[in-house]
Amino acid sequence: MDQELSKKSTSSGGNPLTKDRFDLISKAVAIIGGLISAIALIISLQDNTEQRARELRWNQAKLAVELEDDMFINDPQAFNALRMIDWGAYDYTIKGTEVMITRGEVQQAFNIDKNNELTPKSVFIRESFDRLFYRMGKIERAVKSKLVRFEDVYSPMDYYVPFLRSTHGQVLIPYMEQLHHTDALEFIKRFDIKENAGNRQPFLSQTVTKRGNTREETTTGSASRREEPPGRSRQLGRSRATIEPVISQRPAKEDLVRKVREIIVDQLGVDENEVTLDASFINDLGADALDAVELVLAFEEEFDIDIQDIEKINTVGDAINYLRKRISEK
């Protein structure tokens, strides 16, 4: 009878020890499986983060090349200025006539005490350097906004900036300050910081500050204005001679949205109906790295703010929310 009870117990519930072992193994397998899944997820996230970092770094380097190409290849006036820095004397064509410009004449052209005595040669020199300073300022804005790294645009400007310091520094600073080339001066200051480690005399002996929202008329003729680069849309940094006062009060929400949309339409050349709040600048509006720089500069100038974390702006809605926050902090 005991044997029958034992058989009945075994057939109905099984061996308790075996069942406990089976439950333990099942839990262990579940725990190990969860750990493996978690590790796989962590690795996947890490790979995605690294991939995004590589893509961002690639885009930064690519944009740096494009910005330097604009200065050295695509803008003849800016390149003329670089050549004037490099050469003691060189022949240039001014209004169809070939003339020689020496380093001493470049020095004289920067003299703001001679604003009312400008010759065609002096105007040519000033306009060439105004273009160069515009390009430098554009690079500085891109560096501040973390669109590019300074190390990517350091060379070959590390060759030209010392010549600016040594040959034209005394008259160059007052000239650049008078024409409000503030961003270009900030760009040059970056080389001072890097080279001061070698106990070089700093090029800028005073802090560069913005003098206000409007620009004074300082020179005569064509050299009295900063020529802006050609583009498919609204000129990037409105002519400094006709720049309007920046808004002095916080814009209403609908005014901000309207202005942001106008800037996007002008800069990217897209239809206004495409500029929706969830529209991606890259995927929907077709913006590239240079377009991003132009948009940042346009937003900064229109709303008188500095944008230093552009990675937070992916859609039109992101831009509006970011700008509203920055404006409210002023």
Structural account:
There is one protein chain. The chain has helices at residues 2-13, 16-72, 76-86, 103-109, 120-144, 150-153, 157-178, 182-195, 253-268, 289-303, 316-328; strands spanning 89-94, 97-102. The protein has 330 residues and is mainly α. The protein has two domains: 61-224, no CATH class; 253-328, Non-ribosomal Peptide Synthetase Peptidyl Carrier Protein, Chain A (Orthogonal Bundle), CATH 1.10.1200. A two-stranded antiparallel sheet has the order 1-2.
Summarize the structure.
The chain is mainly α and 330 residues long.
Helix and strand string, N-terminal first?
Answer: HHHEEHHHHHHHH
Major sheet attributes: 2 strands, antiparallel
Domains, number: 2
Which strands sit side by side, in order, in the main sheet?
1-2
Radius of gyration: 31 Å
pLDDT < 50 runs, ≥5 residues: 7-11, 196-250
Gap between N and C termini, in Å? 94 Å
- Please, how many helices? 11
Q: What coarse outline follows from CA principal-axis ratios? A: elongated
* Integer average pLDDT: 74
The proportion of strand residues reads under 5%
Could you give the count of β-strands?
Answer: 2
Query: What percent of residues adopt helix (DSSP H or I)?
Result: 55-70%
Name the structural class: mainly alpha
Overview features:
Non-ribosomal Peptide Synthetase Peptidyl Carrier Protein, Chain A; mainly alpha; 11 helices; 2 domains; two-stranded antiparallel sheet; 330 residues
Annotate the secondary structure layout:
Elements: H1 2-13, H2 16-72, H3 76-86, E1 89-94, E2 97-102, H4 103-109, H5 120-144, H6 150-153, H7 157-178, H8 182-195, H9 253-268, H10 289-303, H11 316-328
Antiparallel strand pairs: 1-2
Helix pairs in contact: 2-5, 3-5, 4-5, 4-7, 5-8, 7-8, 9-10, 9-11
